[in-house]
C-alpha cells in the first residue's frame, strides 16, 4: 500500500486498502497519502472522516495535505480541533501559512506556541525561510542555539537572496559542519557569486556528495 501510494497509483492503493481484512493507523495514513499524492483532496478528507480514531501523524498529514492545495482555512480548522498539538503540528501549520502567503498569520501562530525551545524555533526559522526578517527575529530571541539552528538561519538568508547576511551568520558560528559550508556555498552560487562559491568550496575542511552536487549544479545553471 505504501509503495503504490509513493508511486501515486491511487487505484491500486484503494484496491489494496479495500481488500485488507484489518486496518490500523499506518494503513489509513497510507491511504490518505495516496489520495494526496494523486491530487484527490476530497478523497483524503473522506478517508480522514472514515477513520475510527485519529493519531497525531494523521492529523499532521491532513494539515500538510490541505495546506499543499491551498485549503489553509480547513487546515487551521483541523489544527484547532486537535486534542493536542506536537511540534510537528505547529511547524506544519506555520509552513502552510507561509507557503500560501499568510506570513502574518504564521507569525501569530509562532507566538502561540506554549513552549519554544531550540527545536520549535529552528522549525520556525525553516518555515520562514522565504522571509529572512522573520527568521532573523526568531533567531535573535533564541537563548540557546545548535548547529541545526545556525544552519537553518544561513539557509533562510540564502533563500531570501541575502547572501551578505548568510555570510555574516556563517562567520559568527562557534562551530561549523559540512551542512554549514554547503549552505553558504549554495547561497553564493544562487546569488551569482561563483568566485565566492568556489573560494568557499576550496576552504571546506571536508565535503560530501551533496556539497559536490550543489556546486556542480550551480555552475551548470549559471
Could you describe the 3D structure shown?
It is a single chain. The chain has 222 residues and is an all-alpha fold. The chain has a domain at 146-222. The protein is built from 15 helices and no strands. The chain has helices at residues 2-6, 10-19, 25-37, 41-50, 56-68, 72-81, 87-99, 103-112, 118-127, 132-141, 147-159, 163-172, 178-190, 194-203, 209-221. Helix 7 packs parallel to helix 9 and helix 10 runs antiparallel to helix 11 (147-159). The longest helix is centred in the N-terminal third of the chain and has 13 residues, at 25-37. The protein is globular. The mean pLDDT is 86. PPR repeats lie at residues 55-85, 86-120, 146-180. One of its GO terms (biological process) is RNA modification. Keywords: Repeat. This is Pentacotripeptide-repeat region of PRORP domain-containing protein.
A few lines on this structure:
Keywords: Repeat. The chain has 15 helices and no strands. The chain has 222 residues and is mainly α.
